[in-house]
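Hello Y.,

Per our agreement to keep a running log of every chain we model this quarter, I'm adding this entry. I've kept the format consistent with earlier entries: sequence first, then predicted structure.
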Amino acid sequence: MTPAGAATPAGAATPADPATPARTVDQEPTAALVRQRNRVRRAGARRRALGIPLAAVVLATAACSGPSGNARTAKVEASGDGVLRVGLLLDSSGAQSFINDSEQAAAKLAVSQINASGGLKGKPVVLLPATPGSDSRVQAENMVAAGADVVIGPTDSSNAPAAIDVLSKAKITLISPANTAPELSGIGSGGYYFRTQASSTMQAQVLAKRAVGIGAKVAVLHESGRYGTDVAKAVSDALRKTSHSVAADAQAKPGAEADAVKAIKDAAPDAVIVVARGDGQAILAELANAGIPGSKLVLSDGATGNYGTALASAALKGATGVLPGIFPTAEFQQQLVSVWPALKDMTFAAETYDAVMLAALAATAADDDAGASIAAKLLSVSGGTIDGDAAGVPCTGYPDCSALLTQKKRIDYDGISGAINFDEHGDITSADYVVYTYGADNKPVMSGTEKVTAP
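Predicted structure for the entry above:
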């Protein structure tokens, strides 16, 4: 997550009252799940405003982090001790701490199902005790000391570089269920870093498609900062591929949103793509003040929220918003609650579950539990291909997938969060999105889905 970073419907199913446990999906998925996530985004935005920008952290760390080479495609010899140990790096604290339960529940569920199927080589997979906190470097060092082979986390993209620096040097695989910062694709991890969450720029294809569906003349209004700039550029690229161009591109700086909105209005667009996160509400309020109707708006994941009375009545009526992920099934929700009865939110649960499953399947494919062996097989078991590899046999769940592996067959694990298909950068190459439509109450209601592949 690049706090939003994007939060995902695949990992959340909160009912209308966020204080009520989410046990089924028989209620309309309108979106308390969005409300919870927006709290995460706002908290992250406030914290980032006080610290070093993510890009600077990544660039500073990338130069010294990780061993050389690419463990994702390397040939390695078995070096494990026979027991697969899974760690959790829970960096969520304060307003974001509700995410910890979701990720712990998903990891516990995955490990219990793996062990019910015989574990790895007849030995139970061990889920190491989590030590929630905000210092990802210290947590990563604790995981090294505890003998972790693979670590799931962190949630916040800005905490990834420090964790990667520690774990990659120890040849421990790190799989984040939440990181969305595009620049993490190129971080120097020696091939030990993966993520089951899509880069925030992948949503550009959905935003462009939805905007063009409204009208041919499309404008882009984005907040200042790395998220707004990166996603806006990706939107422009996506529009060009559909033979459209950006009629106007305005950057909304904090306190000067009205100026950016005026530039957009002067262009008289048919549709306006709003790329925002921390400044989303202020931008949307100015759009309403300028008389631009919600029916012309397409909102990025960071701007998609449950605004209600925070905006003028019907300000967003007819607007479209998107969030990455797949809405979780009732069965998956019930399974999570069965192992974590107090669970109230399922943010990133699907992505965490899939990360643990993939790690176990990679260890099964390698017949070894060491981090280097897991990193070398993750691309293959996820369905990713390099250099013309044959496609794997689609499978879901540990019993079916591991059975295929024992038959020496290549597999393509399709997870709770959707297809994974890691590439050579450790990124997923396809992503699912849930589409929402706003009513006169400025609240989003699920209205469709989209699937995109990486450019």
